[in-house]
């Protein structure tokens, strides 16, 4: 329901938009707005909406697990939704980060203000997984409204998922619940989200496998945009490389509902046929800049992985990409105004012919209209930066950030013409210890800049910006904590990354690497 605005209301709103009206002018506008809003209301109430995509099987409505059932705080919701009797994912259990729509299940985006909202449609990676035989067993906790890191004293509205390798340490985020559930062996596959490393950082710190696919390879339909659509991804998180490959193949390919998918995205994608072909003759470049901030422990573990790959016949060389050290500024510039734009157009964007989930868009817009005080600190900072960017630079900053993208893509592509894959630490540090910060202002200060002390995104964020696929696999542990080894390749060479990761996993005691100490 709506209330017809008065002339005074119109004057007030116009003033916020930078339009000054006299009282007589406001009255004229008010009369026309009353007619227009009534027409909008009639359109909403009398015209049938397009039917949302939904798997036609039975749906278990599920339940919120107890603390005893969920000792690592990894699950928002538990359920059992069986898929087709056969398929690539038959016999596999699957979870979804809670920014991914599963029809009939809660969709909170990690925000308590969204409590009670139920998705009425399936994301593409949900319907495709079910068609391939997966059993959906729940939604995984995330922190922030489709983003955030959960570092230090900050964590999401639904608590801090615990790292099964050491519960006193962080899991990484924002796909934190996915990582915890996988490391604990509670699910086979969880599909997460990655805007600056939110699949690969928790994979690194929690000792699991995480893939950020090539941009556009996996449809993003039904998944919220926490920032600019051009840096947002979904991808599989698993305990084994083989599961990661099959999880990618099951959902990858063009589907017509994600406007970011261009004609070069294949209809289907083969990630498994060459999985066991090894790395004999494969050229792997050690990215010099990728080790610039790595701790000695992380560096040692990644170089040990390099030695394993060399022993399997890979040709190893050093390679330098200076742009790797400056690319983060471009993405930071992009993200500020993008956050502002998303709030203006709606959580699922605008300007394309696709299905727009009305109920979810409305629910999130109401949060933005009435609960801005509940934004996570980094989200609020990004929004404020976007507002000042727009005021001071009149859109130039966002335009420049988009326009320099080809320069950075070209820098990595030139390197990948000399080698087949790049290798570097996923994160330059291991999972930091969790340190509660009781003082509110101190916690706010830490939330806004404290995460930079770990440089967690320095090797992950660049490939969200360029679109290259990036795979994190666990290297050998150091001091009982996981280390992530990141492989990066050319666009659509996701299968090659998985092949190299599989060769490494088969050559080492991978079960011991990913195992949680009892």
Automatic annotation (TrEMBL):
| Entry's transmembrane regions | none
Report the domain of life of the source organism: Bacteria
Q: Domain (Amidase): give its ranges.
A: 83-498
Pfam families named in the record: Amidase
The GO terms this record gives for MF are: catalytic activity
- What is the protein name stated in its UniProt record? Amidase
What is the species listed in this Swiss-Prot or TrEMBL entry? Microlunatus soli
